[in-house]
Write a structure and sequence with these properties.
Chain lengths: 93, 215, 633
């Protein structure tokens, strides 16, 4: 559990600090993995397999999300010629 | 236990590397390492099926996607620096503290209720649950018990420690998870397929859009 | 019977709708439709009358009081559309439909060629409909609906020739002054509701007799309620101080003056008080009614002496006679008051129509000083006018004599001696100004402008037939109904509708009163003869009293300065400049926009467009939330 927390926070830092959109994405994946770890740990502790099934679903959703996220990034790149999030400020207002 | 520590340390290190490396490709490689160590952690926790899925889906498909995109956009040459205006350490400490606090309190509450970390259930209840969730017949149970503890051990004479071991062992097996998946969780399973279709459609529509003028 | 009632009520409404919607198309036929509508109502009234009086004679039901439709039902408040037909209603119905019908017929000739022909008849029908609602109502709310309706129609009809500014001004004046009265009426209604929990006549009167009501103003509840209702009557029936609209109302077509201002609408106030006889008697507020009535009568009569416009004289005369009616109902002689209402309807209506006939002949000339010697030129008009004048003056045997005499008699009997004397003086003045009008207009040398003289002709039959038809009852109805004083046929018919106080003094003998009235009447006529029937009328003396009288005591001017100008000033400078421009426009509307801009401007900085700042806010938010959740709870 401690481990999971640690991993998660590392992911958070990464999301906040990096400027490259792709790398931010990767940090999001780290966070998701941390959550999965937690699920499995509790599943073992409680003797209930539901935790692992949930992990299965989480992974599926993560995969879908990665696909779409990357598609978006590609599309944004086509428009702005950059993946630096500091420069993609058209929603500033 | 040892495995847990080793894999844990590797995972943490590679995660820090993901965050710290400047070159995106280096970060991606570190991420793959992270995933693998995560799989190792899963195995150490007895969730074999999940570990396998992790390797296949995450390390296999998702990282490949990432690498494809990095190649496509030719980001390999881009160097990326961390921003200055956020104090990483402070946030790190803060978030970590909160998360640990949550976990601590949850565990504390849980322990208080039951006088032990795991619910003390009688052997019969546990075995009954095995039967219900995993749809194991008596035959199967006998079989597993014999595998674990040698032939001749009868089902009803198991100690609590042995039962725990039994449960942990059964839990991770693919067969058991499959049974659970299609009995209790069949609806989410079907819904997941919808999610995948949605993702598919989303991706295609996004990529096929006409490029607009740059803002 | 109920179908008769409904037919009676609906018929003028249908006439109004047809004329109103299709007026332009059907042109001349609109008058026929209107007259037929009223005729139907008249026939229904007669049928009802015969039904009820025969059942009365048999000792069976003498009235009908029922609800047609539950209009408002909200918690404790329940207002119905209900009809009450009793002796009082019947009297009013016959007067309204009878005189109304004759006036409609007369209008066919009078309004001939007017561009607003159809509009006129639709308004007339609407007016009759509203008046019928008023008298048929069995509760105060419905009565008020009719009350407002006739007010509206009088506005419409007074300002009928709307291109003339004086006409529209007069219409507005009538409506607004009326409205002031209506405000009092409403307050009175609400007081009654608060006290009795209902608007219906039967319930209120019954509970009032029993003393069974909520005394929201203590012992004075009924007094206050009746006084407020009386304020409404002051407005509608043109008493002091709200009479100022009636003289100006002569701007409208003359038949309108006849119908609305002589026979029906202005009598609505008297009717209302008579209907509420229970309340007024119990509250003992009749004395105020009587005093205001007699003062009004006197004041108006004095103003009538100097007026030179035929219709003005008649208008003041109406105000004066209404004062008499108020005296009647004020002293508790409800039957006498209504009796005078009936006779007045006939002879005043007659005189207005005759005046219209004169105007028609004289190409719309109104000033008496430009007339004279018309007796020979307009015989029918002359004789009918004379009939009306004799009636109003109180010449013995004719209608006015009977009804006025009863009122004065009752005034004396109930102890209001001062009222009696003032009433007597007014009677003298009445005879005087009426005959002044007759002598100046019809007798002596002709002062008519030669150009006008060439067009002089008697009115067409469609106009003088109603005149004659009205003249006969004017002369004789008093005799028929009033013979026998308190024992007359009229009293028998109407007596049980009203609330009688416990003690009945032995009415004193009528004879001395009759004598006094006769003397007074002749005194007035002879004075007028002396002063005015010479060939060249005396020039009016030019002293202060004459100035005062001719200018109507400058009351209109006083009102203008004291009431109208201040209100206009407040509205224009105070309310408009300050409240509207500054407070509403600047502070409220402008303020809101400034506020929005300010807040928006400062919140704008949150939207940086940089994703990570959003995530940072999210993380901080989650931390805070979880922290609170864990440590505080």
């Amino acid at each position: 559990m401690v481990l999971s927390a640690l991993l998660f926070t590392i992911g958070v830092i990464g999301v906040l600090v990096r400027r490259n959109a792709i790398i931010i994405f990767m940090c999001i994946e780290i966070m998701l993995n941390a959550a999965n770890l937690l699920f499995v740990a509790f599943s073992r502790e409680l003797g209930d397999s539901s935790g692992q099934v949930i992990v299965f679903f989480v992974m599926t959703v993560a995969a879908a999300e990665v696909a779409i996220g990357l598609a978006i990034i590609v599309s944004v790149f086509k428009n702005h010629a950059t993946v630096n999030v500091d420069e993609i400020k058209s929603m500033k207002g | 236990m040892v495995l847990l520590v080793i894999f844990g340390l590797v995972a943490i290190c590679s995660a820090i590397c993901v965050v710290a490396f400047k070159n995106p490709i280096h970060s991606a490689l570190a991420l793959i390492l992270t995933f693998f160590s995560q799989a190792g952690l899963f195995i150490a926790l007895g969730a074999h099926f999940v570990a396998a899925v992790q390797v296949i889906v995450y390390a296999g498909a998702i990282m490949v996607l990432f690498l494809f995109v990095i190649m496509l956009l030719n980001l390999g040459s881009l160097q990326d620096t961390a921003r200055q205006n956020i104090s990483a350490i402070k946030i790190f400490v803060l978030v970590l503290a909160v998360l640990l606090a949550i976990e601590g309190i949850t565990v504390a509450r849980y322990v208080d209720q039951n006088g032990g970390v795991i619910k003390k259930q009688s052997t019969d209840v546990i075995i009954q649950r095995l039967k219900d969730d995993f749809k194991m017949s008596d035959e199967d149970i006998k079989h597993s018990v014999e595998e674990l503890y040698g032939k001749g051990t009868s089902v009803s004479n198991l100690t609590s420690v042995q039962v725990t071991g039994l449960v942990h062992g059964e839990m991770g097996k693919t067969e058991r998870i499959g049974t659970l998946l299609f009995s209790k969780f069949v609806l989410p399973f079907e819904v997941t397929s919808f999610i995948l279709i949605a993702a598919l459609i989303g991706v295609i529509s996004i990529v096929n859009r006409e490029p607009q003028e740059a803002a | 019977m109920s179908s008769t009632i409904i037919l009676l009520l609906i018929s003028p409404l249908v006439g109004f709708l047809i004329n109103g919607v299709f007026g332009k198309l059907i042109g001349k036929a609109s008058s026929v439709i209107a007259c037929v509508a009223i005729l139907i109502s008249l026939v229904c009234s007669v049928l009802l009358f015969s039904e009820i009086s025969s059942s009365k004679a048999n000792g069976a039901i003498s009235y009908s009081d029922g609800s047609l439709y539950e209009w408002i039902s909200a918690g404790d408040l329940s207002v119905e559309i209900g009809i009450r037909v009793d002796s009082l209603t019947l009297v009013m119905l016959l007067v309204i439909t009878g005189v109304g019908f004759l006036i409609h017929v007369y209008s066919i000739g009078y309004m001939h060629g007017d561009p607003g022909y159809a509009r006129y008849f639709s308004y007339l029908n609407l007016f009759v409909f509203s008046m019928l609602i008023l008298v048929l109502a069995n509760n105060y709310v419905m009565m008020f609906i009719g009350w407002e309706g006739v007010g509206l129609c009088s506005y419409l009809l007074i300002g009928f020739w709307y291109e003339k500014k004086s006409a529209t001004d007069a219409g507005k004046k009538a409506f607004i002054v009326n409205r002031i009265g209506d405000f009092g009426f409403l307050l009175g209604m609400f007081t009654l509701f608060a006290a009795f929990g209902s608007f219906g006549f039967e319930k209120i009167f019954h509970d009032a007799e029993m003393g069974n009501y909520v005394k929201i103003f203590g012992e004075n509840t009924l007094k206050i309620a009746t006084l407020l209702l009386f304020v409404g009557a002051i407005g509608k029936s043109a008493q002091i101080p709200l009479y100022v609209w009636l003289p100006d109302a002569m701007e409208g077509p003359t038949p309108v003056s006849a119908l609305i201002h002589a026979a029906t609408m202005v009598t609505a106030g008297v009717y209302m008080i008579a209907r509420s006889s229970v309340l007024f008697t119990l509250a003992e507020t009749g004395v105020y009614v009587a005093w205001i009535g007699v003062l009004t009568a006197l004041l108006a009569a004095t103003m009538a002496i100097t007026a030179n416009d035929i219709k003005r004289v008649l208008a003041y005369s109406t105000v004066s006679q209404l004062g008499y009616m108020m005296v009647g109902v004020g002293v508790g002689a409800y039957v006498s008051g209504i009796f005078h209402l009936v006779t007045h309807a006939f002879f005043k209506g007659l005189m207005f129509l005759a005046a219209g006939s004169v105007m028609h002949a004289m190409s719309n000339e109104l000033d008496m000083r430009k007339m004279g010697g018309l007796k020979s030129k307009l015989p029918v008009t002359y004789w009918t006018f004379l009939a009306g004048a004799l009636a109003i003056a109180g010449v013995p045997g004719l209608s006015g004599f009977w009804s006025k005499d009863e009122i004065l008699h009752s005034a004396w009997d109930s102890g209001h001696h001062a009222v009696f004397f003032l009433g007597l003086v007014t009677a003298a003045l009445t005879a005087f100004y009426m005959f002044r009008l007759i002598f100046v207009t019809f007798h002596g040398q002709s002062r008519v402008d030669p150009h006008v003289e060439s067009h002089l002709h008697e009115s067409p039959p469609v106009m003088w037939v109603p005149l004659v038809a009205l003249a006969v009852p004017s002369l004789f109805i008093g005799l028929v109904l009033g013979w026998g004083g308190h024992d007359s046929a009229f009293h028998h018919f109407l007596g049980d509708v009203f609330y009688a106080t416990g003690h009945q003094e032995q009415p004193s003998s009528s004879l001395p009163f009759m004598l006094i009235s006769t003397i007074v009447a002749f005194f007035g006529i002879i004075s007028a003869y002396i002063l005015y029937s010479k060939d060249s009328p005396k020039d009016e003396p030019e002293n202060f009293t004459m100035e005062l009288l001719t200018n109507k005591y400058y009351i209109d001017e006083i009102y203008d300065a004291v009431v109208v100008k201040p209100i206009k000033g407040i509205s224009q400078y105070g309310l408009w400049r300050i409240v509207d421009v500054v407070i509403i426009d600047f502070l409220c509307v402008g303020g809101v926009s400034l506020l929005t801009r300010g807040i928006g401007g400062s919140l704008r900085y949150i939207q940086t467009g940089i994703v990570q700042s959003y995530i940072l806010s999210m993380v901080i938010g989650i931390v805070l939330f979880l922290g609170y959740y864990l440590f505080v709870r």
